[in-house]
Amino acid sequence: MVDYTEIIPMRLKYFREKFQLTQKEISAQLKIRQGSYSNWENGKRLPDINDIARIADIYSTSIDLLLGRTDIKIDDESKKNENQLKNLKNS
């Protein structure tokens, strides 16, 4: 069984770094305080299901991937979305 208290913070950090976003940038996209996001990434708190769904949408990935129920794979669609995120970051 997956230990969500360990895997979710690791996946959040993985995707944020993969898409070259700061905690401030991703928390702004999620419309939450940076401190709240930091708590998720540090494992002090976990995002609720609505936040997990929003994060999955931002990274164009599945909730299962964020929850550690499947392995991390970055496909061509995710690479395309990575470029879109970079454009958002630069605007």
What's this entry about, in short?
The chain is built from 6 helices and no strands.
What can you see in these coordinates?
It is a single chain. Helix 2 packs across helix 3 (34-41). With 91 residues, this protein is mainly alpha-helical. It is globular. The chain contains six helices and no strands. The model has no long low-confidence stretch (mean pLDDT 86).
Say how many strands there are: 0
Biggest sheet, in brief?
none
Provide the structure class: mainly alpha
Order of helices and strands: HHHHHH
In the predicted model, the low-confidence regions spanning at least 5 consecutive residues are none
Q: Based on Cα principal axes, name the global outline.
A: globular
Helix percent reads 55-70%
How is the secondary structure organized here?
Blueprint: H1 4-18, H2 23-30, H3 34-41, H4 49-58, H5 63-67, H6 76-90
Question: Main attributes?
Answer:
6 helices; 91 residues; globular
